[in-house]
User: What shape does this take?
Amino acid sequence: MNVDHQQLQQQLNHLKDRLPALSSRLSQAAVELKEAGVPLDERLSEQLIAYRQEFAGLKSRAIELAKTYSVPGVVAPTQISSLHDIQGILHAIARSGGQVNESQKALYYIDRFLSLTHRDQPHFAPLEEAKVKARELRHIILNSSPSNFPPDVPALLSGQHPCCAFLSLIEPDTNIADEEWERMLDFCGRAFGKPLTLAASRGKLLFSGTVTAPAPTVTAPTAPPPPRRSPEMVVIAGSTEFIEPTDTEAEVERLLSQQPSSPGSNLPDVIILPSSDESPSRSQIAPPNPNFAPTSAKMSGLSGVGIEVGLNVLVHIERVGDHQFHEHEFAGTRGKALRLEAFALEIKPPIPGLGIRYLAHIQGSGDTPWVTEGEWVGARGSGLRIEGLAIELSGPEAPNYAVYYKAHIERVGDTQEFSNGEFCGRRGMGLRVEGMEIHIDRK
Assistant: This one.
């Protein structure tokens, strides 16, 4: 049997091996929920989401492989609801003897490439030029016999063709190592050019009919947050009690260790933080909506000359909630294993003709659409981590400025600095972004 079938069988066996432990924990969680009202553990929720995603991917690939081998009697995707059903498909493929029309399988990859579209530019020139060559290759394969197939066919069948690597950039394996990812980027860059490869690695390319994550799953919820979330944090200006100023990470550590003074009270927990001599918006925790507190102008000038670009950075930190930061400040935590779940940006004070937009790569959803200044991107309180981000400037003044940003990533640390729409993070690696630092400079 071929490599594709063997890989799918290995993936299915891997999922089967995880089921006993997962089902045992789920059963115990169901008992605790029923008897004591204990909510589902966050790590268990993430494991269930990961299992569902892997199951859906395995199901999709098994159906595609069955079509490639023209296996009869495969039921509709909606009727495939268990690993047992997927195992039946793999058994049917094995019984077919693995006989496949080589040209049909090669054309499958070509047709997948031809179905690509650009998320923002319907007539993206580098993609259109590559499609012209793909159509030429498709024509050659269709008009060739097995005895005189072009060299591209064996390469496609073995997965060594640049087209296969390029498709893997768009639908990456969640277990791919950084070194392999870099090798694929280099391989595709030499074959397709940097602009097209960059668009693929940044999630700009979609297969026709692919639906991006719906807005409700990646934007701020409209309903009020559930009760008993992380303590509300309030700044009391003019406090007579002196509190030694602390950095953000120490403050977060203190917040997480804070215990309610009266477990039986129905009142929300309130933690009093010190005010400062700066503008109040620099010390207070932003309210749970994307409207930023006003920030006073720092400098003035003509047509933006001499103006230091101010930036409000609002992030939602796991178990802490909403916290507001500013340009050049580290927004988040380091070494606390706390994910960022959402963020929103706003240039403050506004600069006429200059805007900012941004996207995030969300666990289980992929890249969000670009959102504009002041809008949330992410899913606050959902338990879904941000795994990457991209930021760029907009408006007629955008060419006169540059935005720079970096992130602190789980097990990776601080990234290098990225700018002007470059993707910062790790797609498909399951690594959370724990913080970010952003600033805008005038050129």
About this structure: The chain has three domains: 3-95, 106-207, 232-241+270-442.
